Amino acid sequence: MQNPEQPVPQNWATRFFTIFTGQTISLFGSSLVQFALIWYLTQKTGSATVLATASLFAMLPQILLGPIAGTVVDRGNRRLIMIASDATIALSTLGLAFLFWTGRVEIWHIYAISIIRSLGGAFHYPAMAASTTLMAPKEQLARISGANQAVQGLVSIVAPPVAAFLIAVMTTESILMIDVVTALMGIVPLLFFAVPQPARAAHLESAPPKSFMQDLGAGFKYMASWPGLLMLGLMATLLNFLLAPTGALMPLLVTKYFGKGAIELGGLESAFGIGMIVGGVALGIWGGFKRKIVTSLMGIVVFSIAILGIAIAPPDMFWIVVVAQAVVGVMLPMANGPIHALFQTLVEPDMQGRVMSLLGSVAQAMMPISLLVAGPVSDALGLQTWFWVAGILCLIISVGGFFVPAIYNIEENHHKNQPQAETVPVA
Q: pTM for this one?
């Protein structure tokens, strides 16, 4: 027997968007720091290996610890986890600022701080994502995902030029202090607003508490027992494998194939960011088709065609790539937003931390693997080869999703017999 849906208060928007705004400001500060540190490493070392190593250190904790972090989120107090994550990031950044101020900073210090910041993010993301389901009505989740995508697009456009300006007028430690302040602005709303916690299902109230490893294993079993969710996660992982190298190869494509420079590359990034804002705002207003999976699959179909446009563009028609990048930017929120909202709608609240972090870890793990594959392929067969591969296979996967019942009907065939817990606010 299924418990009633969790009650969402009528004034839900005040609480949610206050917390959301604080987290957005914190994200902007983190983007400034990321740009400043990359620029420092570039100027200090001029080494591609150093930059790649820094990116790897910033990525590995979230890949390796994702399932563990999700289990902690589902077992613990999500509000306190978000506060602790933001505080950890702020303190580590403060320590790095001190090292810059005293002139004692070393490259390995930046690697170490990148690991700590990534650890904080590994716990923060699933806590915020799982809490969103309990703070907002289900019918608003697709719009909220669209707004989140638009914000990410806006940050991707605004943060680099702002950071570049700040680098010219401020010291690195001063820029790091901005991130400390913005992290605190992300914490403050969480001190004043309660975040709902998923209560245990009624039939489990009398059961003895499970161990951490049992809860961790339950996340894997949950996904394995639900073919639609498992197949959708597999589809997302394959898409991430195919798409990750397209961004990494773009600078080489712009310079070596089209013969353009930094201005044109910056224009491409702006076109993509503007597209994300347009797509996110459009999804936020529209909300997508009634069947969320249709919106996502259609978004993937269109951006797959845009990637093929990049593959076929001749060297003297760079404008095709600009248009294609803008289209990809518009369609990414349409693809990601509804799927994210679908997970938030269908996955039981007390399982969301584990499911989302597990999916995120697997998808992120594909990035270094796909880069290792795409590099030699592009060197051997040409820079546009991977765009052909990615465009064709993404198109096949997305069109195929319409004909796979487990995926297309996932909104009807979810765990209806799973007990769903009521939620209670925890101050």
A: 0.65
